Fold J domain-containing protein.
Amino acid sequence: MDGSGANNAITRHDFEQRRNALAALQRHLLAQEAEFTALREEIQRFIDRYVGQLAPLYMELDALQSQLHRTTSELAEGLRRSGIDARIPRAPKATDIAPLPRLPAGAPQPSEPPGGVIELGPPPLKTLYRRAAKRLHPDLAADERSRREREQQMMAANQAYAHGDRAELERLLLAAGEDPVKVRGGNADAIRHWLIRSEFAAQGRLRVVQAHLALLNLHPMRELGHAIVRAEARGLDPLDVMASRLRSQIAERRQQVYIGQRLQPESDLARQFLHELERRADGYPIH
C-alpha cells in the first residue's frame, strides 16, 4: 500500500481481519522469543555444569601448553642457530567456549489509533477556518511574543481561507494541536499506516528472533549437551570420561615440559624431542 488514492480505503471488516492477523503474528513472535529464552537458559545450564566440572582441568592444561610452547620455541631457536631449519611452533590457543547469542531489545510497537475505524467525512473549509480562528486568535496569547506569533499564524489562516487552501489550514490546525480526525475526517489513513508500521515491525522483529534462534541451535555446546544427556540416559558418565582424558593430557604435558626444559637447545636430543612432538601430532613441526 502507498497510502494514497481511493483504492486504499479500509473498511471495518478489512480492519478487523488485518488486526486479527497482526495479533496472530505478534503471538507467534512472543512464542518464538519464549523459545529462544528457554533454549538459551537450557544451554547456559549445561555450560555452567560443564565449566564447573572441567574448567579447572582445562585451565591447568592451557597453562602447561603455554609452558611447553615457550620451551619448544627456545629449542627451535637454538637449532636454527646451529644451522638446522626449525620452525618456531605455533602458539597454542586457550580453551574457550563461544558466547551464547543475546536477543537484542525490540523497539516498542506503534500505538493503535483509538476507536477503531472512524467513518467521518472531512469538515468543510469554513469549519476548518472557524477552528483555526479559535485556536490561533491573538487574544489567547500568554505574552507579547506569543501574540506576534499568533498574528502571523492568523494572517496565514486568513490567506489560506481566502484562496481555498485546505492543506494550509489543516497544517496550521495540526501544528496547533487539533485532533487529526476533526481536521481531516475519518482516521482511515491513520489506521492503515498503523497497520503497515505494526506489521513491518512485527515481521522485522520475527526475522531477528529467528536468526538468533538459529544461532543457538547451531551452538556447539547445544549438541554436546544433548549428546551428554543421551549418554547419561544409558547410564554413562561422559563428563567423567572427559575429565579422565584431560588428566591424562595434563600428565603427558607435565612430562613433556619437564623433559624439554632439561634439553640443550643445540643438541641432537632437542631435535629428536621436537620430531617426536610433531610425530604425535601436537603441532610442533620441525624440518
Summary: The radius of gyration is 37 Å. Residues 196 and 283 are 58 Å apart (CA to CA).
